[in-house]
Batch of 2 targets.
Target 1
Amino acid sequence: MKTFSLISEMVKAVQKEHKAGHSIGFVPTMGALHEGHLSLMEESKKANDITVCSIFVNPIQFNNKKDLEKYPRNLKEDLRLLQSAGCDYVFIPENEEVYPEGTPRLDINFGSLDKVMEGKFRPGHFKGVAIIVKKLFEIITPDHAYFGKKDYQQLLIIRHLVSVLQLPVQIHASPTFREPDGLAMSSRNLRLTIGEREMASLIYQTLCKVKEKAGHLPVKELRRWAIKKISSNPAFTVEYFEIVDKNDLHILENWKEKENALACTAVFLGDVRLIDNMELFS
Ligand code: AMP
């Protein structure tokens, strides 16, 4: 496994691979890796000759300075995990290497995709995500790139980016990897206290119950039920809980388009913000 921190070196390595006729799979991450990340690596390894992983805590996608400062960083352990997962190249650039002239411009209209849920509560977040993913795609030039459904709205943003800019990369989505108690794996879970960690599966339990009840209660009532259920534990503050269409994220009014129904939530547990989602009819 080779690691690069300079764009020029990374570009040289992938150009050599392309010349040799090797396909390149790419897994962008912000580090503090867990099995969810490794499941994306596995998908890439199955389908490509070479797998590249990037570790970059992208400052411009954090709308909250504290969240950026407290984001878990664990490079030594990350490299160990990537080595044992069979990663070929790791790209670990510094901020100045990625943004030598400050934040680049990106004028893409994401329609309603970046206005709701994460977009509404984290202004500027998806612009930051789109800028870094575009930049990483330009550097790595992957044939295939792998993203988790855990960040479902991000996945739609990236599909939109690729489609609008006609980027020559195929986007693949992997299911959410969960802890044994159902909590969606996330780097931010490392910030939970032991007590919070024990309670955290309430989010998954609520999503499972919502799936059971979907179609039996009116959508609005079910949404209210879910918010009440999570809020019944005072350690939790629900930022949003929405039942949306998984294609364009518009809020469902009824169960007529139920095969596309996706429940999405963002919750504060203490000062840690957790997100999760579940398809309700598949
Ligand atoms: P992050 O390091 O949080 O930016 O995530 C990097 C990639 O891993 C993104 O495509 C995420 O959607 C994906 N990912 C994060 N957590 C999970 C999970 N629990 N299961 C599957 N994929 C995940």
Target 2
Amino acid sequence: MKFAERAHAKYAAEWDKMLSHPFITELGQSRLDDTIFDFWAMQDYIFVREAIRFFSVLMARFPRKYQKPFQQTLAGLEHELEIFHEYAKKRGIDLDNVQPTPICHAYNSFLLSSAYHEDVDANFVILYTAEKAYHEAWKKVRTGIKKGTPYESFIENWAGEEFRQYVDWLGSELDSMTEGYPESRLARLDEIFLLTVRYEYLFWEMAYNRLKWM
Ligand code: MP5
């Protein structure tokens, strides 16, 4: 069995729990409290801003064949920051003074530490898992939400066709790079998959419950 299929099968319960988080369900039914969405937007802005550092470290470590596709990803992240700025302007949110919550801080630290200390395959697992989680979450939101929502640009970005192709590409690269791996390495990569799913779950949980330091 290929890596992605195997990891999804092994952690199907955790994946489902993440995707059925009330944040996603209520957003998809157009009944999520605006201020909860704002809380998520402020934290995800920080997440994306810091993800640029994560990708930049990886760019230095990746084999040449990955540098070109990930230049597009970096450009995509800059575009995402613009989406956050436009949304913040409409809502009167000052993004310059947002502090990361413990969960946002921990997730970003995990990414940056992995970029420096884990091998390329492990970083591909993190990337694939985080991007796939967002793609599926926003597709779920898109199916039910009312037309003319103020969240359209976020939905288009992560549920759209371009992002789907990117996630599929990450999955197929990951599958081919892990082909024939010994069970010991696969088990380590499984752990990283699970850790990333857990962080994805906790990110929604943090926003939904407005979890801060104190
Ligand atoms: C993504 C994100 C998607 N923006 N935030 C979290 C918590 N997980 C995944 O990644 P990207 O790099 O913004 O497309």
